Amino acid sequence: MADREGLVTGEDGKRRCFWGASAPDYIPYHDGEWGRPVADDFRLFEKICLEGFQSGLSWLTILRKRQNFREAFAGFDFNRVARFADKDIARLLADAGIVRHRGKIESTINNAKRAVEMVDKEGSLAAFVWRFEPDPASRPGRFDWETLRAMPKTPESIALSKELKKRGWSFVGPTTMYAFMQGVGVVNDHLDGCFCREAVERERKGFARPA
Q: pLDDT tens for residues 133-167?
C-alpha cells in the first residue's frame, strides 16, 4: 500500500514511487531508466513513438512489448523507418507482438521522416528536445503524488507539443509530451523520498546538455 506521499517500501527495503513497484516489470524501468537523462537520438525517438502508442493503453502494456516494437521498427532508427512503405505497414498490422493500430503505425513512419528533417535543420533530435527543459525555479518545491497529479502537462510540454505539431509530427499532444519528458530525464519527477530521486538529480547535474 502506498503511503500519503505516494511511496511504497519494497521487499528490498527501498522506498519507491508507488507505480514503480506496482508490477515486476516496472521495477527495473523505474529504478534504472525512468528520469535518467537521455541524449541518444534513437532512444528519444523511440520514447516519443512508444508514448504515442501508449495513448489509450497502460504504459505497462507498451513496456512489455517494447522489444517487439524495437524489432518491428528497426531499432527506432528513424533514418530506416522513414523509408518504410505500404508493405511495411501491412507487415506491422499483422504483427501481434506490437499494438496493431494503423493510425499509430503510420504516425511513427511520418514522425521518422520529420525526425530526419529535424536532424538536418537542428543538428540532432536531442538538441531540439532539451531546449524545452524547464527552469528549475519554475518547478514545484515538493514532489508528492498530489503535486504530480495536478500537473499532467506543463507550459514546457505544451510548447514542445505545439512546436512538433507545427513541424508535422503527430500523436504528440502536451500530456503525451510531458510523459516523454519525464521518461527521458528532461524533468526529474521521482517523488520526494523515493530512493531514485537524489541519484537521478545527481545524474542530471552531471549531464552535458546537447547543443
A: 999 999 999 999 999 989 999 999 999 999 999 99
Q: Which residues contact 189 (CB under 8 A, 6 or more apart)?
A: 35, 143, 148, 182
CA separation for the pair 170, 90 (Å, rounded)? 20
Active site residue 117: no
**Residue 114 cell numbers, joined:** 520529420
- Helices 41-54, 102-122: axis angle to 10 degrees equals 150
Judge whether 156 and 139 are in contact, CB under 8 Å: no
Cα distances from 173 to residues 43, 52, 117, 165, in angstroms, run 19, 9, 20, 8
Q: Tell me which of 26, 34, 59, 130 is the catalytic residue.
A: 59
Burial of 11: CB neighbours in 10 Å, binned 0-12, 13-18, 19+: exposed
* Residue spans of alpha helices (H) in 36-124: 41-54, 59-72, 78-81, 86-93, 102-122
Q: Which of 5, 46, 51, 156 is catalytic?
A: 51
Cell of 133: 527543459
End-to-end CA distance of the chain: 43
Annotated catalytic residue 26: no
Q: Which backbone phi and psi does 139 adopt, to 5 degrees?
A: -85, 155
Q: Write out pLDDT tens, residues 114-134.
A: 999 999 999 999 999 999 999
Grid cell, residue 71, equals: 524489432
In contact, 34 and 179? CB cutoff 8 Å: no
59 labelled catalytic = yes
Model pTM score = 0.96
